[in-house]
Amino acid sequence: MATHVCLYAKCIMVGTGKHVGLVATLLLAACGGANPDFTLHGAGVVVRSDAAFTKRADFPARVETTIEAALAYWGGSWKDLEGSTISFEGSQHVRCGGSTGAVGCYDGDIRVSTRDVGFTFYCVEETTLVHEVGHAVIGDPGHTDPRWLDFGSVAQSLAGRPGYHDADERPCDIFVSVWRHPPDRHGGT
């Protein structure tokens, strides 16, 4: 009987026999993907950042509730993210197609920076996660849906949470301008 190796929803047949386990392990390692630090409803979460909020015990729960607020706003469900990877990157920009200046990206997986131009964010809610979940749910790389310009209800649902800087608590100031995006004239993410 053949063995299939699955990475989230992608499977390949690796053969039969005694060495199937070794072959499967090598294939998985060769894919180069990072092992998730934790999972939420079938989505792997990878943390490549030293932002203080990513080191706190409440980080997984904050990611989960931020995503839940975003999913409610966009009319989605956890099924829209199942099998994807959500990465929090410590660099100011994330890799996104040919773009060198993106602070967030959705290309089947979500990558968000934990830094703004001048400082590191104090909480997950300040990142572009809500925006990128929107792309996962509705696509819309041209940002033509009017919801890209109005995130008041999401900000209200996430307001009042603490932020973190080193060992200190700071306000988690949500600036919906981070999430907003006017319609693109040339497409984009």
Structural account:
By secondary structure, this protein is of the alpha+beta class. The protein has 2 domains: 1-32, no CATH class; 34-178. The protein contains 4 helices and 11 strands; from the N terminus they run E-E-H-E-E-H-E-E-E-E-E-H-H-E-E. A 5-stranded mixed beta sheet has the order 3-4-5-9-8, with helices on one face. A two-stranded antiparallel ribbon has the order 1-2.
Give the fraction of residues assigned to helices: 10-25%
Question: What general outline do the C-alpha atoms trace?
Answer: globular
**Weakly predicted, low-confidence segments:** 1-32
Tell me the strand percentage band: 15-25%
> Strand tally, please?
11
Please compute the radius of gyration using only Cα atoms: 18 Å
The DSSP helix count reads 4
Number of domains: 2
Offer a few descriptive terms.
189 residues, alpha+beta, 2 domains, five-stranded mixed beta sheet, two-stranded antiparallel sheet, 23% helix, globular
Summarize the structure.
Helices cover 23% and strands 25% of the residues. The chain is α+β, with helices and mostly antiparallel strands and 189 residues long.
Topology of this protein?
Elements: E1 3-7, E2 10-15, H1 20-30, E3 38-40, E4 43-48, H2 59-74, E5 85-89, E6 94-96, E7 99-102, E8 104-106, E9 110-113, H3 129-138, H4 152-158, E10 162-165, E11 168-171
Parallel strand pairs: 4-5, 5-9
Antiparallel strand pairs: 1-2, 3-4, 6-7, 8-9, 10-11
Helix pairs in contact: 2-3, 2-4
